[in-house]
């Protein structure tokens, strides 16, 4: 009898972001082409656990994922107790580039979901030279919030539980029940105000829209994946975004929602493998 | 339709986790299906009363306004995209939520799981609005 031990290895790396020290948690599995994976708002690296445990994927790909500051096992910076967490495009870009640098990743594929997909497209427009290609999942140019982001940080209610109840709207009914709830648990666990601060970036910053035509897919391919059951980034939102990027491709995943790698790993893996095949080897 | 709400109330009683989630929820919710209205009164997570409307003198905390076909699609075992969630119905223009939406959001998991009981209860309780 031997215990089942995941091949995923987790460590910490210290980086400086806007002059402040951050100890960032990251995980990796596999070898070969580096693929840097970005989690959604209000969640963490655990969203990528299935692909990191997928021997076919990791046979030729080194998957790396990290918890954004304030998320998962990455602590907030010193002095956080008097700060309002509000993610910005600039801080997000700085964080991703710092991790690429600190981990010595040579032109990784960047795979991001939701707000991670949004920042992947920003990086495709502004820092394409640091990456080999972009897999933007549930990613779009911009959507204003159809909810009040202040709901998710209040003294009289549990923001994580309310956030989970709201984002469950984006999970496909085809998702296995256990993975639906594993996915929601991460939202329930997110720190006070963190989901709200992520949504501030996601629902208020429109700066990507004019940058989309600048993306040169001849140098760095862009493939967008979107689930039919995603109410936040709908297939129409994703297709509109792909249409604005010359040469970008877009695939609609009929039975999936907004968190495909986490909510329905079996359903998502063929789409992700296909997306990896579209990226430079 | 009244039978359906009553059956959902009974299904709620069989789910202790849901009663626990709703333990602070004592409100009247208006469900409007086209011209038909139903006032669902919850007491500490239990569905204490269902009164058909229309009524101008029954206060309610929030309202879900939709139509019988949309609700029927919502209650399919595997709903089509958009029909799979209350806010999906809102997003595709088949429902509206009025009133004190913050009370709904604070009890969102409870209310969504209650409403989904119409799907989970199984067959034999067709919507006849």
From TrEMBL, chain A:
Pfam families: Abhydrolase_6. Residues 35-268 form the AB hydrolase-1 domain. It comes from the Bacteria. SUPFAM superfamilies: alpha/beta-Hydrolases (SSF53474). This is Pimeloyl-ACP methyl ester carboxylesterase.
TrEMBL record, chain B:
It comes from the Bacteria. This is SCP-2 sterol transfer family protein.
């Amino acid at each position: 009898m031997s215990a089942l031990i995941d091949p995923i290895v987790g460590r910490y790396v210290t980086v400086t972001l806007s002059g402040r020290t951050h100890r960032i948690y990251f995980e990796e599995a596999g070898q070969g082409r580096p693929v840097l994976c970005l989690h959604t708002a209000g969640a963490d690296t655990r969203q990528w656990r299935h692909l990191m445990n997928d021997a076919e994927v990791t046979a030729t790909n080194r998957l790396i994922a990290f918890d954004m500051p304030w998320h998962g096992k990455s602590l907030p910076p010193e002095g956080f107790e008097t700060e309002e967490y509000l993610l910005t495009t600039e801080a997000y870009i700085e964080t991703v580039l710092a991790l690429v640098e600190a981990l010595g990743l040579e032109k990784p594929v960047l795979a991001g979901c939701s707000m991670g997909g949004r920042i992947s497209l920003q990086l495709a427009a502004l820092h394409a030279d640091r990456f080999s290609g972009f897999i933007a999942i549930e990613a779009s140019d911009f959507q204003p919030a159809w909810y009040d982001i202040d709901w998710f940080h209040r003294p009289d209610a549990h923001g994580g539980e309310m956030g989970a109840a709201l984002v469950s709207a984006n999970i496909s009914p085809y998702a296995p029940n256990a993975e639906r709830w594993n996915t929601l648990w991460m939202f329930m666990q997110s720190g006070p105000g963190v989901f709200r601060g992520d949504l501030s970036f996601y629902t208020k910053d429109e700066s990507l829209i004019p940058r989309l035509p600048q993306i040169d897919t001849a140098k760095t391919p862009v493939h967008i994946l979107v689930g039919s059951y995603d109410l936040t980034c709908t297939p129409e939102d994703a297709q509109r975004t792909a249409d604005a990027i010359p040469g970008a491709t877009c695939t609609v995943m009929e039975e999936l929602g907004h968190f495909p790698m986490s909510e329905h790993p079996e359903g998502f893996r063929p789409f992700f493998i296909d997306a990896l095949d579209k990226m430079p080897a | 339709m009244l039978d359906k709400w009553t059956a959902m109330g009974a299904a709620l009683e069989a789910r202790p986790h849901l009663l626990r989630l709703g333990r602070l929820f004592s409100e009247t919710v208006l469900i409007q299906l086209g011209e038909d209205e139903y006032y669902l009164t919850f007491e500490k997570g239990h569905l204490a009363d269902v009164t058909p409307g229309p009524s101008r003198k029954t206060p309610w905390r929030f309202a879900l306004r939709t139509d019988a076909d949309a609700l029927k699609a919502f209650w399919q075992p595997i709903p089509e995209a958009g029909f799979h969630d209350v806010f999906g119905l809102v997003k595709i223009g088949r429902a509206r939520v009025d009133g004190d939406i913050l009370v709904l959001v604070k009890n969102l998991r409870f209310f969504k799981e209650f409403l989904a009981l119409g799907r989970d209860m199984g067959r034999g309780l067709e919507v006849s609005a």
